[in-house]
UniProtKB/TrEMBL annotation, chains A, B:
This is Hydrogenase expression/formation protein HypE. The gene is hypE. InterPro entries: HypE, PurM-like_C_dom, PurM-like_C_sf, PurM-like_N, PurM-like_N_sf. Belongs to the HypE family. SUPFAM superfamilies: PurM C-terminal domain-like (SSF56042), PurM N-terminal domain-like (SSF55326). CDD domains: HypE.
């Protein structure tokens, strides 16, 4: 048998100079080599190593949570991350925003013929690093290859499984008048990093995507504010769109204070240049926590001490008035509506 | 709020004549309309309807199992199914082959700009039907759209979650000498249906893909043969490749009996014409059960009475001799090796 196996896997793939061809997705020898030389090396864990088509998981204690995302971001590499770190962090965050501890990830790859294996390796390593940072295991996966001209390098789909933290119950429907709206840092970094990279804007070259796993931050929030009502990550559509969704789902109003919303100077400048409002630009490493007034200060303190929460700020209040509407006290002292995004959102930002 | 929502979702999409554009994947209004008019209608269940980014699931009782697959099959519609039925059935089967009851599915869509919404609707309806047949719920999903020329109509990734059936423990490592090898029906139907369709072979026009969810069949097997050792679906690489994997993982030999392996006449003819061996051609609605000798007859009987198991047959025996090798008593009475697939497998067959 050992000899049989040796014969079958005789020629290793060239990770440095090789390119993906259709055989790497056909489920035969080349697929097995790609798995052992690229994926298994980066994702190594005892569940994946069972080598079964499906993964057997340890018992899940809290309410199980599942979330999935297809990632088609362009470009694949950008300041502050790549499609791999984004795919893992994005799914970790979707699970965490259910008030849950993310545990496992399933990852599927659709690769375009001709893609450099070195780039795939770099992306897969980046996924492994992000998974280790978040404390999640990539337990199963699948790889398919499509002909040149039928993909765009690489698409990654990630599905995350987790368990709700003890005693926590969050939902977009649970915001209550009097609650405070806290965000975990500056708005618009991810979207403007991608746009600057894509448009080749030199003045935006210092902007980094904020892409990061936020599950440790969520655990700190749930410890400091056990009655947290809503957790949400303001990704596509940004803070404004996400708050409108919450205001609508909870039938409450939300009053923001513009002066308290952190926006990095270079992001603000790039937004101004492109005629964009940072409140509508995507974030990939920020969250919104809506917490009862009495837990807001301790929550804010815990967030500022937690990973990826240093710039946290209380930015608004939930109101009984004007249910379904988000408004903002502006820097000029007036009050304006913060509407749903009217224009269509930027494609392929995640 | 109601008015706000009405305004936001004012113009419904045209499911019959509309085409997918980039806004349908951008996470804004068009995405929401696509979800409510196409996906939610076909997948309707109480978990999906919560409308959260992640799905909260009921408690999972047995050992949790997760499996995922990216589906890039070409063509999207084929005799006996389409990419939608295939995606659901394929993932249901991967979970079931762990000796588990599939419960939930997460589905991600990467759609190429210009794709007819009517085709998407047809595929999504087909997913819903297959999910209902299998008794699984599609609980969460994501949709992204890529520019024309960066996809091939539609790619679907499905991740399945299930629970191991009480008392069942199967693994490719558990085949033991004396065990019987049972298959649930004829070999090669899926692969030859796709190839005939793709190559426009008129003589193969009667061949239907066998794509089907096999979880009910697996439950019957586990009832009739509670000590079943291995469950596997012989997809890419066919029966020959899958049995070689099992022989290798379990360090046993396998001796097949060619006369007992069912192959439909038209599949055999199409294979002969194309110079293919049906034992290496993909199946999407068949399984291999390796069971102890004393449970083989009752297992076979139960399989023949179960859905998608009517043509089940005992086709071989596990041996202590020649561990790692699969051999076959041929129709001519000789014995030949059944090797791993040497040629590379057909791309985009699933």
């Amino acid at each position: 048998m050992a000899e049989e196996k040796r014969r079958y896997f005789a020629t290793p793939i060239d990770v440095k100079k090789g390119i993906i061809d259709l055989t790497h997705g056909a489920g035969g020898r080349a697929t097995a080599q790609l798995i052992s030389q690229v994926f298994a090396r980066a994702f190594s864990n005892e569940i994946l190593e069972e080598g079964h088509d499906g993964a057997f998981l340890p018992e899940i204690h809290g309410t199980p949570v599942v979330s999935c995302d297809a990632h088609v971001i362009r470009p694949l590499f950008f300041p502050g991350g790549d499609i791999g770190s984004l795919a893992v962090a994005g799914t970790v965050n979707d699970v965490a925003m259910c008030g849950a501890k993310p545990l496992y990830i399933a990852a599927c790859f659709v690769i375009e013929e001709g893609f450099p294996i070195a780039d795939l390796d770099r992306i897969v390593q980046s996924m492994g690093r992000t998974a280790r940072e978040a404390g999640v295991k990539i337990v199963t996966g699948d790889t398919k290859v499509v002909e040149k001209g039928h993909g765009d390098g690489l698409y990654i789909t990630t599905t995350g499984i987790g368990e709700v933290l003890p005693g926590i119950r969050v939902s977009g429907r649970l915001a209550r008048p009097g609650d405070r709206v806290i965000i975990s840092g500056s708005m618009g970094d991810h979207g403007m990093a991608i746009m600057s990279e894509r448009e080749g804007l030199s003045f935006g070259s210092g902007i980094q995507s904020d892409s990061a796993p936020l599950n440790a931050l969520v655990e700190e929030i749930c410890r400091a504010a056990p009655h947290v009502h809503v957790l949400r990550d303001p990704t596509r559509g940004g803070l404004a769109t996400t708050l409108n969704e919450i205001a609508s789902q909870s039938s409450v109003g939300i009053m923001l204070d513009e002066a308290s919303i952190p926006v990095h100077e270079d992001v603000a400048q790039a937004c101004e240049f492109l005629g964009l409002d940072p409140l509508y630009v995507a974030n990939e490493g920020k969250l919104i926590a809506i917490v009862p007034e009495e837990e807001a200060e301790s929550c804010l303190k815990a967030m500022r001490a937690a990973p990826h929460g240093e710039e946290s700020a209380i930015v608004g209040t939930v109101t009984a008035e004007d249910p379904g509407y988000v408004q903002m006290t502006t820097l000029m002292g007036g009050v304006r509506m913060v509407d749903w995004l009217n224009a269509d959102q930027l494609p392929r930002i995640c």
